[in-house]
Amino acid sequence: MFARLLLALLALCLFAGAVLSQEGDSVVVLTHDSFAMSEAVLTAFEEANGIKVEILRSGDAGQMVNQAVLSVNNPLGDLLYGVDNSFLSRALNAGIFTPYESPALEFVSAEYLPDDTYRVTPVNYGDVCLNYDIAYFEEESLALPESLGDLALPEYARLLVVENPATSSPGLAFLLATIAEFGDDEEYSYLDFWEDLRENDVLVAQGWTDAYYGEFTVGSRGSGTRPLVVSYASSPPAEVYYSDDPEGEAVSGAIINDDMCFRQIEYAGILSGAANVAGAQLFIDFMLSPAFQEELPLNMFVFPVVQDVDLPEVFLAHAAIPEQPAAVDPALIEEEREEWIQAWSEVMLR
Amino acid sequence: MRRYLPPGEYLLYTLPLVFLGLFYIYPLLSIFDISLRPAGLLDLSAFLRLIESDYYLGTLLFTIYQAALSTAFTLLLALPLAYVFARYRFRGKSILLSLASLPFVLPTVVVALAFAALLGSKGLLNDLLRTLFTLEYSPLQLERTLTIIIIVHVFYNLAIALRIITGYWASIGFETEEAARCLGAGALAIWRDIRLPLIRPALLSAGALVFIFCFTSFGVVLILGGIRFATLEVQIYYQAVSIFNLSLAAALSLVQILSMLAMMVVYTQKQKKLHLTMASSRALARPVRSAREVLVVLSCIALIALLLFTPLLALVFRSLFAAGRFDASAYAELLVKTRASLLFVAPIESVANSLRYAILATAGALTLGLITAFMVQRPGRLAKLADPLFMLPLATSAVTLGFGFIVALDEPPLNLRSSWLIIPISHTLVALPFVIRSILPSLRAIPPSLREAAAVLGANPPQRLLTIDLPLVGRGIVVGATFAFTVSMGEFGASLFVAQRESVTMPVAIYRLFGDPGLVSYRQALALSVILMLVCTIGFLLIERLRVAGVGEF
Amino acid sequence: MLRIDGVSHAYGDVISLRDVELTLEPGEILCLLGPSGCGKTTLLRIVAGLETEFEGSVSFNGGNLRGIPAHRRGFGFMFQDFALFPHMSVAENVAYGLRRRGYSRRECRERAAALLDQVGLAGQDDRDVAALSGGQKQRVALARSLGPHPRLLMLDEPLGSIDAQLRDQLALDLRQIIKREGLSAIYVTHDHREAYAVSDRIAVMNIGSVQQHAKPRELYHSPRNSFVARFLGLRNIFPISEDSPFMRFAAYRKAQNQGFSAALVHPTGIFLEREPPSGAERFAATLSAVVFRGDSCDVRAALPGGTPLYFAAPELEAKPGEAIELFITREAIKLLRD
Hints:
heterotrimer; A: D-Maltodextrin-Binding Protein, domain 2; 11 strands; C: CATH 2.40.50.140; 9 helices; 18 strands
């Protein structure tokens, strides 16, 4: 009796499994947890092309790339979106992408292209920098840090929340900025600086969402405790836009002093062995279309790579673009990235 | 004299061996390979790094430290409770003891969420304190502290320690301490000279077991502690998934495997000693007499209720109430698939997935477990070898297993990496030792004469199996099935590596949703946790009943 | 009917059976009697098909049993521990063999009830076997083994776990039931009294071989060797010696030449009466001890030179230490081989 019941259940399960695994015509976008895009835009694409768009979030940017690398033989989706210049080499070296030269690239400045192989297509960029709680710094009559080195000063103790570079791409970008600033074999190296930040009780969050919405006083609407956060130069306008008064004053600001920011370019690429290559190509074209590009600032607080895309009012009013982002040689990043992260983890997470 | 097995039986016995070889030995060897030969050549740099940097030593030390601390607190709490349970007879005692083992079947993610719902900065207790003292901030800051990790570990392991110590205490009785009292020993002297020395074996055995559980704790530490409180398990996950340093992850796995093996050896020896002394006289608990004793018993009940049930109630409460009003919308949200969600599918799909995998894993673990138990139970060299062999997965952490799966099973002909099958397979592997351990004792307790009697009465071997062996191990099978089912429902460490896209399981879905700061996701995580908790609890109760009603004691 | 021919068996290096020859006639109850470890249970298990590795042959009604598994032999076996199935009721236990033989559920129920009635357990069908007393379990086990009309019934110490007081009665019951069913049976025991009560013939075994194979009375009165005599509880066994007080008996004097090594003075041939049976020799002795047994007394007396003699006698007046006269008949002297 029991055995028969079990058999029946088994059969049912296998059947259910078979039904579930059936797929219609859809394109699966493998991306990071921070992906956000307005439904209207995605739906418009779906209706125009008769393809369903499915978003597969796979953790932070690093985890997403690792997942994609680990499943290189059995891609989890059709295209990957959200790998940035700090992680790009890992993905390229693992050979997870198949080249595609989108016709829409003609509207994109060549400076955003990593090389001329078209394995990935740039979609947006943003500058990772410190955001601060304007009200807090006014109330405490505290001056803003003028360089990264200032963050180790006692007056900034217990104020800063950063992201773990191992699990977050802005975290890695910020780490790269500190490496550009302090170097990795100077007398006072980036690790010494981080050691001092640690002494200064810096808070390490796992990802940008944790840090910004969980710990940053502005992003968390007060439930967080840190008035300084590693975020994007474009976060303050987004903050205003989503506040109760989209026309009002900014509540947070970005510190865009020279060498305090790191420019991230996010790319999309078609995964080798994708089930729906045509759909993936369509989606990449779509990501470079004005409809998608215009939505980027207010959905993901980043800037479109396509020139002449209209920026929202609020961006024009509040966004700042650093004049001199920190620069680290991409080849060096490629070579040392794991070692830097490892060393950082060993210092900061003990 | 030699006995030859019929070829059919041999074929059957190779089934679990092949399974173990493919899904345990092979992935493990792959890990060794990656850690020792990351680029195809012998390269010990990952190990050197482990030794050179005090960071990884720190991880190991912290793993030991938190496990030791958790064990100490668990025993400290279990000791007086066990005394009361062993000493006194009171109404509802057995129900309370049985309920106290509920955490055993509760998945780590559920428990982690329950404690976050109770003690987190946005938890129930902080709400209460804020309202009571009109505070603007949350007075209790327990998230990402060692304290909350230890509280949860105590919650998890109290029942295990309680059961071992109570059982042992009840078996050695209380005559000696009564004798000591007559000889003039005071309360302190009795604890010091009589009780503690007498129950030492049980304390050591329970301690060893709790230590092992806390040593391998993953979900609780990952969710409530964060990477700064990384145990070996979390560190392996971090190195493999976040930093992508596979050779270091593999080297850490190796350390983990070796530590576990060492601890298992110690534990098995302690366990043997415990059995040796268990055979002494049995003393009966006596009813509660004085008002003081009533107070003691009541406070024990209150303590257990407080520790075990307030977090679970907080979880349920949080899922049903929002902003002080009844709001069950979180459950309705589970049915919705949105592109904004961290999950690829509607959260409710994870319930279907988990149930499906749990049933498959239960069927798989029962089938393989039964075959293995029969193989282990028969005389011969094969059996002697197979017994410890099939216990090995128990000594291997789930994270290591999951990691082994993704590095080993990604190429044809064993290309399971993107198949959902990999999940029930990994759960079967994790559940298998539990099933074998549940079946083997009752199988070994069957006198050979029963099978012979059946044979002489005309039963052929399959009939003997069906009418004698299986019914007699029925209870063991049911217990094993419970284990397999709840282990699979709650499995987190391995699933986190292998469950993806549509195949997401409940614990993984809960972890993902909980990690999202959005309120909707958070409440979805709570609702899913409540469902998972209910499923596990129902399974637990159902099988407890079945066990009483269905198969006779033997 | 059953022929055991040159059967040998060993557990590893330990030889448990050595070239055993035995036969069983239809309707006969054969008892295998011997101390534990003598191989009697092994022999039984070989016949039942529970041990398959042995030398020699076992045949039944002319057919060799080798290669036929236990469940196809159609024999009954009653285990020492009864081996009742703990997960079945009394009636289910009894019906088990019937079900295996393809009887319908109804037939099984009826036959089980009849069998239980026969062994004195009428109406106990639905009881839990764990709740039965030792004697009841024994009877359920018997009913179970009788159920499928076995061609041969084997009983392995069936009264081994029963109180000594009950044993005599149960042994008698067993014999009656077996006879009533017209079965042939092999009965293993280490208790000679039980063997006398149950069997038609007894095979006494020691360290793997049959020492003597005879009817109960013949066995008791004429044990073949010292082991058999001693195992049957006979104690007046003396090595043959030139200065023995028994040199008075002609048979004793010839013993050495005929290869006997010891002599038994059978207690049934020792008397204390004033009127001795004809042909009895008179011995002077000292009374050493008297144990009152109710219907008679166990007496120990010492012949001059200290030779002790044990025998039973009716109530006697002499006190220990007093001189007495006793008579030993010629028939009482039994010569024993090694």
